[in-house]
Amino acid sequence: MFYSLEVTAGYSARRHIKLNYRLRFNFVNESSGLINDLSDRHARAYSAFSSLQTSNRSLNCSPSDFLLKPPQLTSWVGEVLKMNAGAKLDWSAAFSLKIVSPFLIKTRLSKPRLLRVAFGVFALLIVSLIAHTQAFGASESVVWSFDGVTEGGNPQAGLVMDSSGDLFGTTAVGGTYDCGTVFELIPPSTSGGNWTESTLWTFDDYNGQDGAAPYAGLLMDKSGNLYGTTTVGGAHAISGDFGGTVFELTPPSTPGGKWTESILWSFGNDANDGQEPYGDVIMDKSGNLYGTTRNGGAYAMPDNGGTVFKLTPPTPEGKWTESILWSFGNGTDGNQPLAGLIMDARGNLYGTTFAGGSHSDGTVFELTPPSIGGGKWTESILRNFYFAKNGFEPHAGLIMDSHRNLYGTTLLGASGSGGTVFRLTPPSTTAGIWTYSVLWNFNVEKDGGGLYGGVIMDTRGNLYGTTSTDVRLGAGTVFKLKPPSTIGDAWSESTVWSFDITDGYSSHAGLIMDANGNLYGTTFLGGTHAAGTVFEVTNTGSSKPTSSPTPTPAATPTPGGTISLSANPVDFPNAGLGEAPTPKTLVVQNLSAKHALVGDVGGPLAPFSITSGAGAFDLGPLGMLKVKMMFTPTGLGLAKGSLVVTSNDKAKPSVTVNLQGTGEPGRLANSIPVALDNTLAFGQVPIDGTPKSASFKIENIGTGDLKGNVGALAAPFSVTAGGGAFNLAPGATEKVTVQFAPKALGHVSQLLAIIVTAPSKPPAGITISVSGKGT
Question: Is the pLDDT of residue 330 over 70?
Fold first, then answer.
């Protein structure tokens, strides 16, 4: 039996600690694998009195507090509360229990200090015993170690960087009122110098207006204003809990002055408003802000709900206004979004929910704006996560590449329970389904796990992110995922840096990359004061040459590959109507022996299609990609189409590949006088005279049943026999009779459609031109 336990501790209303846990357990048979899942998703909140006295800083949970309580669980949970994360206890050869993610400390003074004291002792013991080397020859430096008090501590979110290289971020606790801070880190003026930290704002929800406990990162506009969220506080908070805010910090007009805070919105304004925003905000071209709340909304219930909101800037001297674009928690919809959003060029919003969906394990969603002003947004679920398959419980947001592929992470995973990095590929047709692929499945015992943060992508398509724990010290890692040189092969993962507690412990956030390929991020714990760090990792093996000691700036154009196509145009063999599609393969090759060829294969329109190889590609030197295509004729005669291959080949950045094929009579053989051009001509027929009839037959010349449908005609034509559905065994025929009864002078014509639905996939058929002249 394997147990995985996730524990979350948070401080409530300056008086109590709330302990939430989620416990899963699986029975595993060594010969047959997973045979039964008894997932318990019950979450409970317990409280224990917390004293600010040093001698009484502890968390106590009665054995009866736990739904499932083997005798060993109670004593071990006490150790976990002291040591924070990463421990493993073997009860017997049959099963084990481990923490899969570290604590998420919400706010207030005594709790982080409690954990830091115990954690610091643990760090000293471990670091003195273990030494290690890092991948790529990467080096890491601690930009700043938070003191957990005046400077803040326990940063939960990532960073933003301005044009001068200054870093900006938030801490969840600390500051003057122990409600969290916004900070700025200024790089040294000389190489090897120390960074300088400035606290731009310290939150104070004691005043009844300001927020507290910012878990999200910041957004910086062109004027240098900062926007962010706090999970609690604001005008509608209840005893310091719930509520939450969206705030703006405006820089001083003169150097050395104070930043000014404005509360743009306080959540909990009414019964349908959101509560507790955990994610950051984004801004559109008009200055509107978009984000999510973890709770609240029209369907809010305990452990259920959440919203997507929009904040519209005011007219002069007015107030910001909020619109709820979507309320989560209705039916099999997702709920509890913990991350921010991204927006594509069309204005669609994409995000994740930590829970909910058809399996209650989280979702990826898309929100489409209304076609007319004042209409409702519509939601599409792009992925329903399931804990037994390919990752579940996404904690972070998404990124989108130039081909509209979405990339994200899940906190946990099916294999190794370490979480995943995934990709969602958009469908080639409007009504198609997004394709889900796991790019890497982390194993806690090998390469880390617990992916709270998302991923970023460099110019070569490499992905970078963090894990919150690993097997070595439980302190987490910085990792890199490299795409394969041949489409369809596996991605490769490497650990860029493993934290050793002194330089950070358990990153809960994603990374940013500067123009030189250096990575910056935060850790929730660790560092000099065990209250978290800001770190920099250099020589990361990013899109620059790894042999060069000086990183190549990302802004410098990367030399492209050299594209070669096996054929252009691509001629398909003749194909019969209703028969199996005719295949053809186009080989895209990189002739360069030095540089990668990065690009995209755009899908053609019917009657041509791509069965594999469409979308983005990244071919290493001399790599190749096989694009498999099909020709499925929908009519007789020559058909033409094209596909476009774009790449970083400077000489040929875009190549149009012409496609052509000829449709022939196939399973729909007919006996009309001129079969090859599919016409049924009645000639001249007197009006109001005797109608004229003509017939043709449909014959199944294949070896399986032929199913389809004969369409209808409008007056003055009509199908008098053989119309509608047909089902013909091999060798059988169907006689179709058409009648022409003109009521007016002149020439008339129509098209009669005959569609084959089986065995042709997709449906195929022919059209017969029916004509006559009334005299």
Answer: yes
Q: What is the pTM of this model?
A: 0.60
Strand 219-220 vs strand 33-37: parallel, antiparallel, or unpaired? unpaired
Q: What is the mean pLDDT of the chain?
A: 77
∠ Cα 696 691 677 (to 5°): 35
* Tokens 């170690």 -> residue: 145
| Structure confidence by residue, pLDDT tens digits, 387-420 | 877 889 999 999 999 889 999 999 988 665 789 9
The rounded distance, in Å, linking the Cα atoms of 683 and 203 is 88
Q: Which helix (H) or strand (E) holds 117?
A: helix 110-127
CB 420 within 8 A of CB 410: yes
Cα–Cα distance between 380 and 350 in angstroms, integer? 10
Q: Give the angle 401-283-266 at the CA atoms, nearest 5°.
A: 130
Q: What is the 3-state secondary structure of 388-437?
A: CECCECCCCCCEECCCCCEEEEECECCCCEEEEEEEEECCCCCCCCCEEE
Packing angle of the helix pair 71-83, 110-127 (nearest 10 deg): 90
Section 460-475 average pLDDT:
87
With contact defined as beta carbons under 8 Å apart, do 536 and 496 qualify? no
Q: Are 722 and 736 in contact (CB under 8 A)?
A: yes
pLDDT, position 589 = 93
Chain-centroid distance, C-alpha 179: 31
Alpha carbon distance 374, 608 (integer Å): 40
Report residue 361 CA to chain centroid gap: 14
The span from the CA of 570 to the CA of 573, in Å, is: 10
Does 652 score more than 90 pLDDT?
no
- What one-character DSSP code corresponds to residue 455? -
In the chain, DSSP finds a helix count (H) and a strand count (E) of 2, 58
The Cα 392–Cα 691 span in angstroms is 68
Q: How many CB atoms lie within 10 A of CB 439?
A: 20
CA distances 567 to 444, 478, 570, 656, 657, Å, are: 47, 43, 6, 11, 8
Whether 232 and 276 have beta carbons less than 8 Å apart is answered as yes
E strand spans, 582-732: 582-590, 597-602, 608-612, 615-619, 624-631, 637-647, 654-664, 679-685, 692-699, 706-710, 717-721, 724-728
Contacts of 323 (CB under 8 A, 6+ apart): 309, 310, 311, 312
Q: Strand runs (DSSP E) across 253-353, as ranges?
A: 260-266, 274-275, 282-283, 289-293, 295-296, 307-312, 321-327, 334-335, 342-343, 349-353
Closest CA relative to residue 214, chosen from 291, 271, 284, 283: 291
Q: Dig out the tokens for 312 from the structure.
A: 């519209």
Residue 724, SS3? Answer: strand
For residue 706, the SS3 value is: strand
Cα dist from 165 to 160, 523, 744, whole Å: 9, 20, 81
Integer CA distances (angstroms), 294 to 87, 242, 322, in order: 29, 10, 16
Angle, alpha carbons 261-265-268 (nearest 5°): 135
Torsion of CA 482, 495, 391, 77, to 10 degrees: -170
Mean pLDDT of the 585-600 span: 88
Q: Is-contact 526 533, C-beta < 8 A?
A: yes
pLDDT at 10 over 70: no
Taking residue 703's Cβ as centre, other Cβ atoms within 10 Å add up to 8
Retrieve residue 112's tokens.
């982080």
Question: Residue 415's closest CA among 449, 384, 456?
Answer: 449
